[in-house]
Design goal:
The complex is a heterodimer. Chain A is α/β, with parallel strands linked by helices. Chain A contains nine helices and nine strands. In chain A, about 35% of the residues lie in helices and about 25% in strands. The radius of gyration of chain A is 17 Å and the shape is globular. Classes of the chains: A alpha/beta, B alpha+beta.
Chain lengths: ~250, ~650
């Protein structure tokens, strides 16, 4: 059991709709866990609960050593978050956005932010509205990583990217993770992504984690680098009719 | 961190900067330069600036970011909630203040271009600034839940109705069997009933707006995805309260718009302009069953057609400064001036409306705006064009006297006007006979003195003398205690000679007699309460003349008095010079009586108290009946005609 991310019986309702029905999940430090599930299963909800922008209906949640409901600011100082769509202020340049965001983090390093921007090849002096979607996602990654977070939450960061850009962004993420050994929780429904970055996989279905473990434990032995057959079967069952890339 | 947020807000509001430069400075200057003679140049640029600023900033600061999906980003930043809240409130207040400054400069610019003569300083409309801040806060608050501009504008109209109108309505009313909460009742009455209501509404509105804005910030920025659900609950609650809100809103509507035919609306005072075309009517409405809180309205009535319109906001009234005809005591400089006072000062043909307008009482046209309350501030030359009103007293040489503000004027028989010496700080309070009581407020306290128009002197009698009627001969006075050398009973009237201080009994006065009004020839009307006889008495000679009362039946007289609006004990003259008194009977009815050739001609007797307003001619009077209607009556004839409200 770690203090990086621990959810016990986590429940979240939206009106009468119960999205999370009792999530139990514990992340190992320094590992990358991919949260798999079809659209609408509650992957983003779980990440938002972890960031403290949603309040759980029931259950307990500790993230980076703090309770995101009671101490959201503490959690947000220690957690990086990359949304599924680049946001921020479109009229700002990335440099301005980094300056603005950096004022909120005690651990923020402007030099590191610039270094990350250079490594990810994102222009600092271009307004966000002028960046491509891929560049925008890289900018969000720069923002998330520049504060040296203990936990990185990725909310479908590769969705909607064309294959070339997606590989490029994915490459950035993979290299960053390997170098820094950061704890990551990545929500996605893309199996290729899971296969490339996951140390562990958690499958969210029906509002609960139905499978959680290392790739080998959950998916069985398969050819390295390929999408495991067991994972294909799980996702095929989950994503029926959802147009998931399998 | 706050500086970062302030910088972000400043850079994020390009429309504000563009508006400042283009609209608020360039446009007024262009209008003043290109169209100096049109109303465009004289638009209220200050009001436009602050209101536009309030709407733009109020709907954009939070609503704009919500619409562009940028609140999610802010919500993820640690500690951003409090700083964002502070920065947005600072930008809202600061932005409106900056725009107010620019609007003020624009108005100065226009004034210098359109009217380059040096005038008095342009007043800064602080209330408009305050209301703009309130509006901005409310918009900021509602845009947290409903970010669309139009929706937040509409909601701003609805939410105050929910939060203010309904409780005010409930707390201002008295319900049988339920003890009202004293503090809340007073607060509600204060808000609805007094002239400072706007200030209170603004302050309470600002506080409510601020609280709502902070709640909205906390909700929206802390958990943006949940705010819509709370907004829905709030809207549902508002709809549930809608019936009460409609009641409250209706009540407020009634507060702003007078209904002359409503049962609780009463006529307070009426003045008829020269030519008898218009009547300037003061109405008031008792808000509560106890009638403690009253709202005054000024109404202009066209006497020919009966058409009327409300002039100005609630808590305004037509007001004369000092004419003794009407015995108005609220001269400039006396008493407190209510914050929303919209007074009209009558200078016979012209009337002053404080502080905005000078209205011609004959044509009801606005002659000047921005007129100050004090008489000295009347525009140059206007005073000379004003015909002075005649007072009840006319000297033996034919001179008439007038009190204008704190100045005393005499107009001789040839119409020459002169100012009489007058002590600084003396103000006429009310007429008593052919003079008036004056008050002076030196540093040590208040002194009461009396001005005798016939003698043209100020006199301060001994404290034991209480003047009741000032006459050219001896004054009629009551005694407080026993005067030195007085041998008569101390509970009766005495003659008092101000030159010598001599006191002697009134001749020909029976202990059961009661004094009525003073006539022009210095005689007084005498009657007996419960009786049906009237006499004219010369108090110095004791000569007593009986007046025959035609067809009064067996109803005994309650009192006889001067018919002026304020019950001065002086008869009033018709245009032809006949003297008119008022008779109230013990059954509650009353009538006017015209004295002519030793006889009396009466108007129809009505079963309510009447008040004389004016004479159309020697035979026709305009009166207020029962404080509900303005009617025309004729002496010696039956029949009444309602002039207002028809």
């Amino acid at each position: 059991m770690s203090d990086v991310f621990e959810a016990v019986g986590l429940r979240r309702d939206f009106g009468r709709k119960r999205v999370l029905r009792g999530v139990d999940l514990d992340l190992a430090p320094g590992e990358c866990t991919v949260l798999l599930g079809r659209n609408g299963e509650g992957k983003s909800t779980l990440l938002r609960l972890a960031l403290g922008v949603l309040r759980p209906t029931a259950g307990a949640l500790r993230v980076a050593g703090a309770d995101p409901t009671r101490a959201p600011d503490e959690v947000r100082r220690r957690v990086g978050y990359v949304p599924d769509t680049p946001d921020g202020f479109a009229w700002m340049t990335l440099a301005e956005l980094l300056r603005f965001a950096g004022a909120h983090y005690p651990t923020w390093s402007p030099a590191r932010a610039q270094d990350l921007a250079a490594r990810f090849a994102v222009p600092l002096d271009t307004r966000l509205r002028a960046l491509s979607r891929g560049q925008g996602m890289k900018a969000m990654l720069v923002l998330a990583l520049a504060s040296e977070p203990r936990l990185l939450l990725l909310d479908e960061p590769f969705a909607g990217l064309d294959p070339v850009v997606r590989d490029e962004v994915l490459q950035v993420v993979v290299s960053s993770l390997r170098e820094e050994g950061r704890t990551v929780l990545c929500a996605t429904h893309e199996l290729e992504v899971a296969a490339r970055i996951a140390d562990r996989v958690a499958v969210l279905e029906g509002g609960r984690i139905v499978a959680h473990g290392s790739l080998a434990e959950v998916l069985g032995e398969d050819e390295p680098g390929a999408v495991p057959q067991k994972l294909r079967r799980i996702m095929a069952a989950c994503a029926e009719g959802e147009g998931v890339r399998c | 961190m706050l500086i970062a947020h302030l910088a972000k807000e400043w850079r994020g509001q390009p429309q504000l900067r563009a508006m400042c430069a283009a609209v608020l400075l360039v446009l007024p200057a262009l209008a003043a330069w290109l169209l100096p003679d049109t109303g465009i140049a004289r638009l209220p640029w200050f009001a436009i600036a602050v209101l536009v600023g309030a709407v733009v900033l109020g709907t954009e600061l939070v609503g704009g970011e919500a619409r562009r999906g940028q609140l999610d980003f802010l919500a993820r930043l640690p500690g951003a909630l409090r700083q964002t809240m502070r920065a947005k409130l600072c930008v809202l207040a600061g932005g409106i203040l900056v725009l107010a400054g620019i609007g003020y400069v624009a108005e100065l610019l226009v004034a210098s271009l359109v009217a380059p003569e040096p005038g008095e300083a342009l007043p800064l409309p602080w209330p408009m600034l305050l209301w703009s801040l309130v509006l901005g806060l409310w918009l900021l608050a509602t845009s947290c839940w409903w970010p669309a501009t139009l929706t937040s504008l509409v909601t701003v109209l609805l939410i105050p109705g929910l939060l203010l109108c309904t409780p005010l309505l409930l707390f201002s009313m008295s319900f049988p069997g339920i003890e009202p909460v004293p503090g809340l009742k007073v607060l509600a009455q204060d808000l609805l009933g007094w002239s400072s209501a706007w200030i209170h509404l603004s302050v309470y509105g600002a506080v409510c707006g601020l609280v709502l804005a902070i709640l909205g910030f906390r909700r929206v920025l802390a958990r943006p995805r949940e705010s819509r659900a709370y907004g829905t609950w709030f809207a549902t609650g508002a709809l549930a309260f809608m019936p009460l809100w409609i009641l409250g809103g209706t009540d407020l509507w009634r507060w702003f718009h007078v209904d002359p035919k409503a049962s609780d609306t009463l006529i307070q005072e009426v003045q008829v302009g020269p030519g008898h075309r218009y009547a300037f009517v003061d109405l008031y409405r008792a808000r509560n069953p106890d009638g403690r809180v009253q709202v005054a309205y000024s109404v202009l009535v066209e006497l020919g057609s009966g058409a009327w319109r409300q002039v100005g906001a609630p808590q305004s009234w037509w007001m004369t400064p000092s004419t003794l005809d009407n015995g108005i005591s609220w001269c400039p400089g006396i008493g407190p001036t209510p914050a929303l006072l919209r007074a009209q000062c009558s200078l016979s043909g012209k009337q002053l409306v404080d502080p905005q307008e000078l209205v011609d009482a004959e044509t009801a046209e606005v002659l000047a705006t921005g007129v100050r309350y004090h008489f000295e501030d009347v525009p140059e030359g206007l005073l000379d064009s004003v015909a002075l009103a005649s007072t009840p007293y006319r000297s033996r040489s034919g001179a008439t006297f007038h009190v204008l503000g704190d100045r005393l004027w005499i107009v001789d028989a040839e119409g020459r006007r002169g100012e009489l010496p007058w002590s600084q700080g003396d103000y006429p309070l009310y007429p008593i006979g052919h003079g008036f009581r004056i008050v002076n407020k030196p540093a040590g306290g208040i002194t009461w003195r009396y001005y005798d128009l016939g003698r043209r002197m100020v006199h301060e009698p001994p404290k034991s003398i209480q003047p009741e009627l000032i006459r050219e001969g001896a004054w009629l006075c009551g005694l407080i205690g026993k005067a030195e050398g007085d041998v008569g009973p101390s509970d009766h009237l005495r003659l008092y000679w101000p030159e010598t201080g001599a006191v002697e009994p009134v001749h020909g006065l029976d202990p059961n007699d009661r004094l009525g009004p003073l006539l022009q020839d210095e005689r007084v009307v005498v009657y007996r309460s419960g009786g049906s006889d009237l006499w004219l008495l010369d108090p110095e000679t004791g000569e007593r003349t009986s007046l025959g009362l035609p067809s009064l039946g067996a109803v005994p007289i309650h009192r006889v008095l001067g018919p002026a609006l304020i019950r001065s004990p002086v008869s009033v003259r018709t245009p032809g010079g006949a003297e008119v008194i008022q008779i109230d009977f013990e059954d509650g009815s009353s009538c006017l009586a015209r004295l002519l050739d030793g006889g009396l001609a009466l108007t129809p007797t009505v079963n309510e108290r009447i008040q004389l307003v004016s004479f159309l001619d020697d035979d026709t009077a305009i009166v207020i009946v029962g404080r509900k209607t303005l009617e025309r009556m004729r002496f010696g004839r039956s029949g009444r005609e309602i002039l207002f409200p028809r």
